[in-house]
Write a structure and sequence with these properties.
By secondary structure, the chain is an alpha/beta fold. It contains 7 helices and 12 strands. A 6-stranded parallel sheet has the order 3-2-1-4-5-12, with helices on both faces. Strands 6-11-10-7-8-9 form a 6-stranded parallel sheet.
């Protein structure tokens, strides 16, 4: 099988390794938004495709299957991938880790629809926020220049954050002890995050609960119609199948 994996996640790297191991030809595509990303095995390309037209042209005649294993919040590339594959008749499957809707503590979270709603909700819950929603929308909180803000990102923001902020550059996994220490040492009183799911960043939810820190969670964007969604790498392998002899 010739498989295009739209990646950048740990699941995408695991899938690429498993596909290569079983003898498939794999190209992993990374958006290029993170410096020094962890690279999967097999061929890797970096950068955009030029929208639906560019992706359709790239896939057509070159791949037997596409697996969209991008971040749960990479809604634009997912939508483009569905449209492109539909146009050229190449099957596509969405590999997406389960979210935190079924987390044992989910009922205690404040769930919101977008970053702006997260900002508003957090302002009613605390004054020393820990922002873990990612670098790209961090400027939505730029108005918080009158308070301490702890922001955790992989790459530094591309704008000058207020002097009262602390920007912590780190990459998961984040163990429980470290998360609890971070919340306590910075006297955090509200945590903001996205429903990324997965075990790499889950410990902060438990640490916040144990310390009585309220949690604001941005819901995931909906998955486009017309794409099969699987939750594990094994399921993705089964969905891709094998090319007939």
């Amino acid at each position: 099988m010739r498989v295009l994996v739209l990646g950048g996640t740990g699941e995408a790297r695991d899938l690429a390794a498993r596909l290569v191991e079983r003898g498939d030809v794999v190209v992993s595509s990374l958006a290029g938004r993170v410096s020094a990303p962890a690279l999967p095995v097999g061929e890797v390309r970096t950068g955009g495709f030029g929208g639906v037209d560019g992706l359709a042209a790239y896939v057509d005649g070159s791949f037997d299957h596409v697996v969209d294993a991008t971040h749960p919040f990479a809604a634009q590339i997912t939508g483009n991938a569905v449209a492109a594959c539909d146009r050229v008749g190449v099957p596509i499957v969405r590999l997406q880790r389960p979210g935190w809707e079924m987390h044992p503590l989910a009922g205690s979270f404040t769930w919101v629809e977008d970053i702006e709603a997260a900002r508003v909700a957090a302002e009613g819950l605390g004054v020393r926020p820990f922002v873990t929603t990612g670098r790209q929308q961090l400027d939505a909180f730029a108005g918080w220049d009158d308070r301490y803000v702890l922001a955790r990102v992989v790459d530094p923001p591309e704008w000058e954050v207020p002097a009262s902020w602390e920007v912590l550059r780190a990459r998961g996994p984040y163990p429980y002890a470290g998360e609890r220490d971070l919340l306590e040492s910075r006297r955090i009183d509200v945590l903001l995050t996205k429903d990324s799911g997965g075990a790499l960043t889950e410990a902060k939810l438990t640490a916040a609960h144990d310390l009585g820190v309220p949690v604001v969670v941005v819901r995931r964007p909906p998955v486009p119609e017309g794409i099969r969604v699987v939750a594990t790498v094994d399921d993705a392998l089964g969905a891709v199948g094998a090319k007939p002899a």
